[in-house]
Amino acid sequence: MKDLLRTADLSRADVDLLLDTAADFAKSPFRSTETLANRTVAIYMTKPSTRTRLASETAVAHLGGTPMFLRGDDLQIGRGETIADTARVISGFASALIVRTFKQSDVDELGRWASIPVLNGLTDDDHPTQLLADWVTIREVFGNDIAGRKFTYVGDGNNMAHAWLTMGAILGAHVVAATPSGKWAPDANAVAQAKEIAAKTGGTVEVTNDPEAGAKGASVIYTDVWMSMGDPESERQEKLKVLSPFAVTEQLMALTAKDGIFMHCLPAHRGEEVEASVIDGERSYIWREAFHRRTTIQACLYHLMRGDLQGR
């Protein structure tokens, strides 16, 4: 694999390697400063960011490189230059490219035309680096043996729901997405792909419209904001009404396993998708999860630069 463009591109061996390396970088962040020594990494973002930008720039610096942050309007791509031409130009100056944008097809095309590794830092369809950070955190809490455990996403059937099901399937986990039916359900193709992967790994992929059924006995309850960047404001009231039964409350958390934890990719809107007492409570692991955005991006860059990832 030259690039990491989609969660589904990763094999179980790839994921295990990345998670192990991320855990190592958590303990010793400067142990591989030669990886990007005297090199630059372009970080191209058309969506605002807190965690992805901070994590990406820090990861590059910890690998000995220089991060070069680029907004959408910093490049001629905003004036009509093609993605292919932009990818070729960036490849002449940088040793890797991290992209956070809207269309998955844009990231795919950058990967096609760039001669350097391209890392997906988020699209409307997927978020592989976030899921790696989530699973480093999960392994810290529960260990590598996840037999008999259930991992549940609750809320909007968005890119996070897709990535949650896919990564869980790769790892052979029992993963659940509890979402509304209809237009805020997960994409049917993403669900089918996750089920196809799970059939080979021994995992279980479940989609339900019942948040309480999804939460019952779960080791993890995971959620995301209900209004994502790019969602039309005209749908806000309808969407919040439909999603209100999927809020993560103390009552919902009470249905989980005794050692169950709460996770959130952030940013969070307390009082909407999650109660403040849950996200700020003792069972919340959101800050450790956010910390691992750096360790996992660092691991991705490290292994992409070495050509270690084999893909499915």
Written description of the protein model:
Strands 7-6-5-8-9 form a five-stranded parallel beta sheet. It has a four-stranded parallel beta sheet with strand order 2-1-3-4, sandwiched between helices. 42% of the residues lie in helices and 14% in strands. The chain is globular. Helix 1 crosses helix 12, helix 3 crosses helix 4 and helix 6 runs parallel beside helix 7 (188-201). The protein is an alpha/beta fold. It has two domains: 7-127 and 290-306, Aspartate/ornithine carbamoyltransferase (Rossmann fold, 3-Layer(aba) Sandwich), CATH 3.40.50.1370; 130-289, Rossmann fold (3-Layer(aba) Sandwich).
Tell me the span between the first and last alpha carbons: 9 Å
Helix content: 40-55%
Question: CATH homologous superfamily of the largest domain - what is it?
Answer: Aspartate/ornithine carbamoyltransferase
Estimated structural class: alpha/beta
| CATH class placement of the largest domain | Alpha Beta
How many H/I helices?
Answer: 12
CATH architecture descriptor name of the largest domain: 3-Layer(aba) Sandwich
Strand arrangement, major sheet: 7-6-5-8-9
Globally, the shape reads globular
**Major pleated sheet:** 5 strands, parallel
Count up the domains: 2
